[in-house]
Amino acid sequence: MSTATTTAPPIEDGALRWFQRLVWAGIIGNVVVGIASIAYPVQVLALAKVDPATPLVWPRLSAMLIMLLAGFYIPAALDPNANRFAAVFAVVCRFAGTIFMAVVGGHYIIFGLFDFVFGAPQAICLYLAWRGRNAAGGTSGSGTAVAIIASLLAAGLFGWGALHWLMEPVLPQFASDEEYFKYGSIGNDGASGIPYPIWIAMPDVCARHLPRPQGYPALGFVYERGRNPAVDTPIGFSRARVGVERVAINCAVCHTVRARMAADAEPQLYVGAAANTVDVQGYLRFISRCAADERFTADDLIPAMAAKVKLSWLDKITYRFVLIPFVRKRLLEQGEGLAWAERRPAWGPGRIDPFNPVKFGMLHLADDGTIGNSDMLAVWNLNAREQIRPHAPLHWDGLNNSVREVVISSALGDGTVAREFNLPAMERIERFLRALPPPPSPHRPDAAAVERGKAVFAANCAECHASDGRRTLTVIPVTEVGTDVNRSHMWTELARDTYNNFREGRDWGFKSFRKISGYVAEPLGGLWLNGPYLHNGSVPTLRDLLEPPAQRPAAFVRGTDVVDARNGGFLAPACDPREQPPEGFCFDTRLVGNGNDGHVYGTALPASDKSDLLAYLLTL
Amino acid sequence: MTDDALTVGWTRSEAETRRTVYRRLLGFTLIVQTVLGLIALIVPVWLARSANLPGPPPAGWVQLWGVMLLITASLYLPGWIEPLHVRLPNIVGIIARFALAIAYVSLGRGLRWFALYELIFAVALAWSYRALLRADLMSRP
Q1: Would you say residue A261 lies in a domain?
Q2: Is A69–B71 a contact, with Cβ atoms under 8 angstroms apart?
């Protein structure tokens, strides 16, 4: 009689076998990825969400090296005991790849994760195998705690890498610079973007917080022909994937206008012009009030989202338990951060306080009670400006004279952050705006009147507004021009110094912010689209601007898109500020910061000269 | 007996000489590879311009190339330390050099100089390693 006894293999042998299997798996993985990357580099890069590479020799060379590298792992796979050095180095090299890719950052982390997937379990198996052997030889203690800590660290590192990869922005490509300006990302998608399904559902769930139940068009946003406001984004909004697809504003939201030559005419779009209809403050109010609404819940939002966007069950769970609560919290915080603006006169459509949000938010300066409400600016002719005057002042008060700094700081004001900052995108926008000409005027006043008006202009206006004017593109002191001082007072020496020294996230290289008390004498290209006039948009038409301040309209409707061919600017009927008009916004010049005083040049001209001058101005 | 002993001693000496030659040759190529890898990692754009590499290459890819050169060099080390007992890295390394030479030629421009370098040292290392293995075999009694 015999008894058969079976002995379980020691754990170290099992661990060693698993180490060998994992090394072989890694070798096979390297070869498969290498072959795929050599044969289909574009597809592999797209799958990894890595930027397209040009020329493709580099990803192909890397793929080739990955395969060759696999050959060096073979000794460790064959006999890790006999090739201890090779076994350790096989693991070390996997981690070296992970660390390098983590340092490179961006979506390249996916390649680091690939190495990590093999390196981490290999390290654990090798450790367990050799620890067992050493213990059998009486040379080591248990080391279990070390293995657990190493495993936790490895899992943490992997999780960090995976999160980093998932949250890296995937930006859509645009063939033309104009399309990029209208719909491209400025590097604020992750930091301030709203997940697209939530954004598109908010007007349905929170319709009562819009001025009119028309969705986002009620806020004056500009849609191109063929785009459906129910599901598409207007000009000035980018869509980019940062974990999920997000919607964020870009430069074009304030710098593209919709205009009609008559109430029944087809709207035309003019890129680079001041966005006369867009109510930025209305939009910010809407999203924060919607977030505070009792209907901003998964139960209300998800059905509205699902009606417009296909959502998987995993999406619904993610939105219900993660994204909707997170977005709600962030929008509420954003609303609280802008609460100071509610204590000042409303911006209204076509106007914005561009720098106080930066001062009180990004630059962490205390609320100084200033009001920076100002008309949005046209941003065309930037090269031509510099031909008139090198380093021409920019913004209404000339607070900076570097186009590059203005583009970057404007993006920062729109929510761009260092970790998403995209310098080539900024350079592309700058290049586009430098070359963008203003659209020619469609107005055709009496030719003789235009000729006479040209002479009146030369005698009364050219010094500050002609391209060869002695003071054109200089800052005229507030005491001289006499217009509302609030916008000029808003920009302080403290703000200048703080912005020039702003280093949050990276060295932004700002050195051109300055403080000058006054307003820039602008050249008049595209004047016909620039109404309402003056820096705070307080004078509705050119005809009104040629009247003494006391005779200018005290309250008028702004935010309409019908061009006023007779008076210049847009149609702006009188209104009562106590009652908001059915369309547009009743602008009250009696409120602080909205004053329509000053710029009395030409107001004392004879009526015939004014008429001729207006005819000429309409052609600009 | 005396003749036999002298013969064995000579072949062992010969094997030792071959080992030294091979290790010096391999050591030199590994140092060159490491230096090149570090340059690619630290100043990728300068390297790309100076060596007329295919381009304009994104700096990240040149750096990745540099890291892979460094990793390959480190995986080669066991073969350099004990070329006779750890043969696989040496064999894989020589094959890899031939493969890289072909790849560099096909990728073009400045990489062709690297192809020439890899080819020369692939041949030299193959010849030297073969001589070492033969000498080692002959040295065994």
Answers
A1: no
A2: yes
Residue count of chain B, please give it. Answer: 141
Compare CB distances from A57 to B77, B78, B107 and report the shortest one's residue.
Answer: B107
Contact at CB, A72 and B76, closer than 8 angstroms: yes
Same domain, A246 and A297: yes
| Nearest-CB residue to A62 (from B68, B77, B99) | B68
What is the span of the domain harbouring residue A56?
11-166
Pairwise CB contact (< 8 Å): A74 & B57: no
Residues 6+ apart with CB under 8 A from B17: B135
d(CA B55, nearest CA chain A) in Å = 6
Residue A178, number of CB atoms within 10 A of its CB: 16
Separation in Å, CA of B3 to nearest CA in chain A:
36
The whole model's pTM is what? 0.68
Amino acid letter, residue A392: A
**Alpha-carbon gap: B35 to the closest alpha carbon of chain A (Å):** 17
Q: Kindly state whether residues A229 and A96 are assigned to the same domain.
A: no
Q: What is the pLDDT of residues B99-134, one digit of tens each?
A: 888 888 877 778 888 889 889 989 999 999 988 888
Look at residue A59 and tell me if it is in a domain.
yes
User: Could you tell me the pLDDT band of residue A1, with boundaries at 50, 70 and 90?
Assistant: very low
Q: How far is B37 from chain A (nearest CA, A)?
A: 13
Contact A394, A139 (CB under 8 A): no
- In terms of domains, do A208 and A305 share one? yes
Per residue in A89-101, pLDDT tens?
888 888 888 887 7
Pair of tokens at residue A21:
């299997």
pLDDT band at A572 (very low <50, low <70, confident <90, very high): very high
Query: How does pLDDT run across A577-593, given as a tens digit for each residue?
Result: 998 898 899 999 999 99
**Distance between alpha carbon A290 and the CA centroid of its chain, in Å?**
21
Contact A68 B75 (CB under 8 A): no
Q: How many domains does chain A have?
A: 3
For residues A213 and A337, state if they share a domain. yes
Distances (CA, A) of A436 to A274, A328, A425, A502, A521: 14, 39, 16, 30, 20
* Contact: A83, B64; criterion CB under 8 Å: no
- State the count of interchain CB pairs (< 8 A) between A and B: 101
